[in-house]
Amino acid sequence: MPVEPDRGGADGHTVAPIDDGLLTVRAAEGDEEAFEALVHRYGPRMLRLATRLLGSGTEAEDAVQEAFVSAWRKLPEFRGEAGFGTWIHRIVTNRCLNALRTRRPVTDLDTVPEPAAPDHQASPARAAESHAAAEALTGAMAGLSSEQRVCWVLREVEGVPYETIADMVGISQEAVRARVFRARRCLTEAMAAWR
């Protein structure tokens, strides 16, 4: 039975999307189409998250792929206490944290911003200032600890609630709040000249 969660029916009526719980159960029983539907549902979001955490498109793709392979292998053990989305979010976040902890300081070509298209109304001085500010932000982000960066990106960029971040990273909500606070303070101090 094919799993196409968001397609319309042959008679023109919309077919209700298959819920994550059912897809997860079917995937745990070895249904590759059900797991593929979960990958299609969550893959793009996880790739955006990993790219924001790692700053490298190539490294992010590897982390997400490894996370989904790990999820496929561990699905029979999945107890369903949290939803599949929360579970895969946690796996991707942990992969990214591990990658950040073991990373050697190297500049990846994917992280070097491409020059913006010239704005004929902007002055060269303004363009140089914008470029310098972007470089300062990149440097400030690189100056955060991997734990601070993960918590800050999940909270400030992804909008993930503190409780969920705590569950995903495996720390208390207070520790998450402290890491986000310290990251905000570091970024604010680093970017003070650009206000």
Range of strand content:
under 5%
Mean pLDDT: 80
Q: Please tell me what the overall shape is.
A: elongated
Q: How is the main sheet built? A: none
Number of strands: 0
Which structural category do the helix and sheet elements fall into?
Answer: mainly alpha
Give the helix proportion (percent range): 55-70%
> Could you give the distance between the termini?
57 Å
Given as residue ranges, the uncertain stretches (5+ residues, pLDDT < 50) are: 1-9
Number of H- or I-type helical stretches: 8
How does this model look, in words?
This protein is mainly α and 195 residues long. The chain contains 8 helices and no strands. It has helices spanning 20-28, 32-54, 57-74, 84-102, 124-143, 146-157, 162-169, 173-190.
Task: Set down the secondary structure blueprint.
Blueprint: H1 20-28, H2 32-54, H3 57-74, H4 84-102, H5 124-143, H6 146-157, H7 162-169, H8 173-190
Short description, anyone?
Helices cover 65% and strands 0% of the residues. The protein is built from eight helices and no strands.
